[in-house]
Automatic annotation (TrEMBL):
Enzyme class: transferase
NCBIfam families per record: dephospho-CoA kinase (TIGR00152)
PANTHER family, A to Z: BIFUNCTIONAL COENZYME A SYNTHASE-RELATED, DEPHOSPHO-COA KINASE-RELATED
Keywords assigned by UniProt, alphabetized: ATP-binding, Coenzyme A biosynthesis, Cytoplasm, Kinase, Nucleotide-binding, Transferase
Location of the protein in the cell: Cytoplasm
Main subcellular location of this protein, as a coarse class: cytoplasm
Protein source organism: Pseudoalteromonas prydzensis
Name of the featured protein: Dephospho-CoA kinase
Keyword Cell division among UniProt keywords: no
Pathway involvement of the protein, from the record: Cofactor biosynthesis; coenzyme A biosynthesis; CoA from (R)-pantothenate: step 5/5
Name of the coding gene: coaE
Length: 209
């Protein structure tokens, strides 16, 4: 629940989160099908370093053209290699990107014209983004299901998947902090029914803002 003094957003905002492999994309698509605008933090993170963006220009000026692909896009693997080897460079990059991402996120949340707006962010709580939300929803599955889905989707081994899950806020902590929970370890048709019910509640809450 939003009780902070963060920049006011005219729209009622639902923060949607969950660990890797929990099915956030499938659920956010259900909200879109109901006519609700979805703002995805991961997509924004890519947009702020897209070709011809100020973010990418600053990165290439700082790190040199070795972090660019031949087509002028960001060579993410090369940049990742640099920042993992040098914590100061990682800090510099975060100081550049986080304000850009936050500014675009807040702008997109404020300019959405649906009845309310959904902010999808895997690190919603970790990055303090819940302060911009009126309510939060976690998409939940057991860790074993997270592992299975992540290994299949990303073509990685179990140890790599476990490392990614361990780096995120624990499932228990997210469940404790979220206002609403959707069990996504069931057929999507049943999940869609739950989302429709929540949508009805959110419409009522949004109308009061």
């Amino acid at each position: 629940m939003n009780t902070s003094t963060a920049q006011p957003i005219k729209n009622w905002v639902l923060g949607l989160t969950g660990g890797i492999g929990c099915g956030k994309s499938a659920v956010s698509a259900m909200f879109e099908q109901l006519g609700i605008t979805v703002v995805d933090a991961d997509i924004i993170a890519r947009q702020v370093v897209a070709p011809n963006s100020n973010g990418l220009a600053a990165i290439s000026e700082h790190f040199g053209t070795t972090v660019l692909n031949p087509d002028g896009s960001l060579n993410r693997a090369k940049l990742r290699e640099i920042i993992f080897a040098d914590n100061a460079q990682k800090t510099w990059l975060n100081n550049l990107l986080h304000p850009l991402i936050r500014e675009k996120t807040l702008n997109d949340l404020s300019t959405a014209n649906s009845a309310y707006v959904v902010l999808v962010a895997p690190l919603l709580f970790e990055n303090g983004l819940e302060q911009y939300c009126d309510r939060t929803l976690i998409i939940d599955v057991p860790v074993a299901v997270q592992l299975e889905r992540t290994i299949a989707r990303d073509n990685i081994n179990e140890q790599q998947a476990l490392s990614i899950i361990a780096a995120q806020m624990s499932r228990e902590e997210k469940l404790h902090r979220a206002d609403d929970v959707v069990d996504n370890n069931q057929p999507l048709a049943l999940v869609a029914i739950v989302i429709q019910q929540l949508h009805t509640q959110y419409l009522t809450l949004a109308a009061k803002k």
